[in-house]
Structures are given as C-alpha cells and as structure tokens.
C-alpha cells in the first residue's frame, strides 16, 4: 500500500499502459483520477476499478482547458494532486516527406504539448502542497532515430528534455520529475503492427535481447516505483524499459 493517502492523475487512462497504471496505483491505495478522450474507454476503466476513490474525466490532453479542468476536478474530489502520470500518446503516419502538417501537429500536440499542459496545470498545486511527482511517458524512441515515425520520435525526445527541465527548475521545491521510456509494448496503439497472426515488427521483436513484446503492467510497475517514496533521490532521469532494445 505504498500509495495510501496519495492521489494520482493519469492521462490516457482508458487503455493500455494508462489503464495498467490506474490499476496498479489503485491497488496500492491511491485515489485515482484519469483523463481520457474516449468515453467508452473512460467508462471501462471506472468499471474495472470499481468506482471507489476513482474519478474519470473526459477530455483531450492537447486542450489547455481540459488540463486545467482535470487538475481542478481532481483536487476538488480528493484534496490534492500528488502524482501526475503523463501517459497519453499517439503515433503518426508515414515518412517525413509524406507526412501532412496536420498529422505532425496532432502528434506533437498530444505527445509533447499535452505533457507540458498537464505539468503547467499541476505545478501550482504541487508547490502549494510542498510536494509532487511527475512520471512522463516518453519512449525508447527518445534515444534513437528509428523507433517510430518522425513526429513521434521528435515528440518523445522532447518529453525527456521537458522532464529534465522540470527536475532542474523545481526539485528544490519538492517536485520530482522522471521519464518512463518504454520499448515495444502490447497496447492498443501498437495493435496495427502486431496483428493477430503476427505483424511487420515480428523480426525486430525477435532480434531484441528480451525477444518479446512487453506487457502494459510491466510499465505500470516501473511508474509506481518512480512515483513512490522509494525513488525519492531519483530526479530528471530517463528510465529505459525496453527489453534491451537500446543496448545493441
């Protein structure tokens, strides 16, 4: 029960890693609020957690008003925002020269600007509390150029830089920030490249040291550690959890 008496706000909590984080934090005693753009997924996570000390908030992480509202509603319901897991993310589409400006902008808006908006909205509350933790989902693509489309890769590089900036600016005021950098994980976002009968990434997955896709709960366990008091001296770090992908 490491999260007892704490409140966590998770973006993209309706499926995949976000839902796994919601389950892990709730199971460890936290009050859980989450922002989710899809109303069906939102209802699914609320039902999964049972509704006790759970708040689902419908909204788009790329909308500044939604970020402010998510923090305000969480504080109104539970009295604090101790942890923010910025997990919402999307992929782009196609090679750079073929990518539309609309797709580029949407990926940057969700994957990078969305993290900025949530952090900006939560920091005043955390400063008033004298404490707070950000766990920002980046990617192993933050360290390589071939881990996804150009927009996704650029955004995830940006998340690591933003996370380190928050650590430098606010650590002495009680706020910690670290980046969670998953490798290939079996989530709805990666379903198109996995496929029920195998997918185009099969040879790549077989080539990494772990030789398999990660499961969302493996990411949630690391997020829980980074948010916990066990990680009190961990500031501005980018934690790869990628089955050894970036090791070779």
Summarize the structure.
By secondary structure, the protein is of the alpha/beta class. It contains 8 helices and 7 strands.
Note the main attributes of this structure.
15% strand; oxidoreductase activity, acting on the CH-OH group of donors, NAD or NADP as acceptor; Rossmann fold; 248 residues; Sc_DH/Rdtase_CS; NAD(P)-bd_dom_sf; 7 strands; alpha/beta; seven-stranded parallel β-sheet; oxidoreductase
Order of SSEs? EHEHEHEHEHEHHHE
Would you identify the CATH H-level superfamily? Answer: NAD(P)-binding Rossmann-like Domain
Percentage beta strand: 15-25%
Number of strands: 7
Class from helix and strand fractions = alpha/beta
* Count of helix runs: 8
User: Main beta sheet: strand number and arrangement?
Assistant: 7 strands, parallel
Helix content: 40-55%
Q: Spatial order of the strands in the main sheet? A: 3-2-1-4-5-6-7
Which geometry do the CA atoms define? globular
Mean pLDDT across residues: 93
Task: Extract low-pLDDT stretches.
Answer: none
What distance separates the N and C termini?
Answer: 37 Å
Indicate the radius of gyration in whole angstroms.
Answer: 17 Å
CATH class: Alpha Beta
Count of structural domains:
1
> Can you tell me the CATH architecture?
3-Layer(aba) Sandwich
In CATH, the topology is named Rossmann fold
Task: Report on this structure.
This is Dihydroanticapsin 7-dehydrogenase. It comes from Capillimicrobium parvum. It is an enzyme of class 1 (oxidoreductase). Its EC number is 1.1.1.385. Keywords: Oxidoreductase. There is one protein chain. The chain is an alpha/beta fold and 248 residues long. The protein has one domain (7-247): Rossmann fold. Helices cover 44% and strands 15% of the residues. The protein has eight helices and seven strands, in the order βαβαβαβαβαβαααβ. The chain has helices at residues 16-27, 39-49, 64-78, 101-129, 150-170, 191-194, 202-207, 216-227, and strands spanning 7-11, 31-36, 54-58, 83-86, 132-137, 175-182, 238-241. The protein has a seven-stranded parallel beta sheet, with helices on both faces. Helix 1 packs across helix 8. The longest helix has 29 residues, at 101-129. The termini are far apart. The mean pLDDT is 93.
